[in-house]
Amino acid sequence: MDSQRILADFFRKTWLYYVLSISLHLIASIVHVNFPRVLGNFTDELKEGVLTLDSVIQYSWILLAIGSGYAIIGGFAQYLVMYTGRFFEFMNRRKLFIHFAGLSERFYSRNGVGKLLSYFMNDVTAVRESISMGVNQTAGASMLLISTVVMLLLTDVPLYLVAASIFPLLLIPVVVAWFGPMIKKRSMGVQEALGAMTESAEEQFGGIRVTKKFAVEEVMGARFGVTVDRIRSRQLSLVRVSSFFQSLVPFLGATSLIIALAFGGYLTINGTITLGGFVALTLYIRMLMNPLQQIGNVINVVQRARASLERLNNLLSQRPDITEDDEALELDSTSGTGIEVRGLTFAYGESETAIEGERKMKADSVPGAGDKKGRSASVAESKREPGPGGNDSSGGEAQREVLRDINLSLAPGTTLGIIGRTGSGKTTLMKLLLRTYDPPPGTIWIGGEDVRRLSLKSLREGIAYVPQDGFLFSSTIRENIAFYKRDSELPEVERAAKLARVYDNIIEFPDKFETRLGERGVTLSGGQRQRTSLARGIIKDAPILVLDDSVSAVDAVTETEIMETIREIRRGKTTIVIAHRISALKHADAIVVMDGGAIVERGTHEELLAKNGLYRTLHDIQEEGTMRNGTGH
Ligand SMILES: Nc1ncnc2c1ncn2[C@@H]1O[C@H](COP(=O)(O)OP(=O)(O)OP(=O)(O)O)[C@@H](O)[C@H]1O
After folding, report:
1. Which value does ipTM take for this structure?
2. pLDDT digits over 502-511, tens only?
3. Of 2, 229, 318, 587, which has the maximum CB count within 10 A?
4. What Cα–Cα distance (Å) separates residue 283 from each residue in 39, 60, 138, 210, 329?
């Protein structure tokens, strides 16, 4: 998406409203500029003593008609643009959401949710203001300015007097050129500070329970205060320059009025122009003041909006770094769901998707990165072409390998257990299987196809992944369990809940499966939440099931029951069980032990015990713990 797309797309859809509104503004201004002329005539008749009671009433009606005509027509013109502005918000918030949803996990791990919310709220609103309030005021003000100047020229006021009076106004473009970039830069600073504050607030509220338990509200308050202070100081710096600018524009208008009064007054005294002409001139110049003030306003708003627009365009030009082949294949689970991993080495690498990162790269003008599209493509390309070690490297910088030379073969319909110390790369391996991050080509295969050649939809539909900390949405338990199959009947949802051993807990709630969960499912305990998330994975009944430490928060008895059930329902279906507790995976057809990003042992439970290696050590420690607990009872 090129940088002008947001506005171009919008105006293509709404230009008719704008044309209509500007035309109405023009009509309203034409009506309005008759005001001084009528008053000028009134003054002349008054001075000549020809004014009658009838003509006073007539003048009053004319002025009333001018006033109400201007209000009604101008008001409708304003409404049209305001309405269209709201449409802009609606259209672009939707567009942003869809765009955000298409970006990969790498993007989210580099850009906080708070900052993205700030784009949604502050930046879209800033642009909306400029294209609704800004367009309204610009249209109204410039029409009024033009028609006022035209009317001035049509009066019998000499041209040199008109020219002298409006001369200061010609300096306005110079002032705008001087202040505009300054306002834009400072607005950018304010928007960034607002983004940082939203991000901080989001994090602080998200972690409020931890804060309270550690009684560090004051520390967190002070930390939040820093972000608020930063906004204040940046706002003040913006207000200083924008207020000065905004007062300078009417000041030039006032100078015009002074010239009109002094020079026009002198010419009236010596009889060069009539009193009516003088009144009309000063009223016209006075009439210019409002539009000038408005134009000052608008320029301010537009400069701010330009900063926001730049941020939005920058965001919308972010390409998802996980993309599909043009000729992506569908995962065909009927032809087998065996999994092969061959020589897989992986490092997370630096972020190419951080928004600031991209801006910095733009400034540094990466060689060969002529435009954003080109750069994104080259980044994506560099990821597709791993270095000699098969590494997902870019830019040649040193990157820590999280997985090293992983080789695995899982026959269709069998169960693989993965165990290993924390941080040994188990979850990373699953993320690569799901292409949450891209593995180097030719390293992970499902059903005989490289996962990089499969369509993302079919790949992810083919795998039910149950993470350790499954996120629950703020909706009902039923909707959370039926997340993948939204049309599931209640009995199906209940069955999944029973299999995940969470049914009994759910039916104890007054609303049972219709119980609404708070943010992140706060009304459930850790174990209940984990089992609800497990039920969500079970109901999907995918060809491949991955349990990534999915029963770590349940007691040993329930864990055993769940694992027995899983063995039952997954008979003949490919399953991967990642666990820290040997009891959760000892029945697997094959078990691999990971350490430091590599597979250090493999075999069945009995074979591994016989090896006297890391698995045996883990087993003995866990057995000892179990025995101690047993003695303790
Ligand atoms: N998004 C990421 N960016 C950079 N490094 C990451 C990212 N996610 C994980 N890592 C790093 O990769 C390594 C492996 O993490 P991973 O989550 O795969 O381990 P794990 O074996 O699943 O651990 P655990 O048993 O604690 O869940 C860790 O050192 C971690 O710090």
Report:
1. 0.97
2. 999 899 888 8
3. 318
4. 9, 17, 21, 66, 74
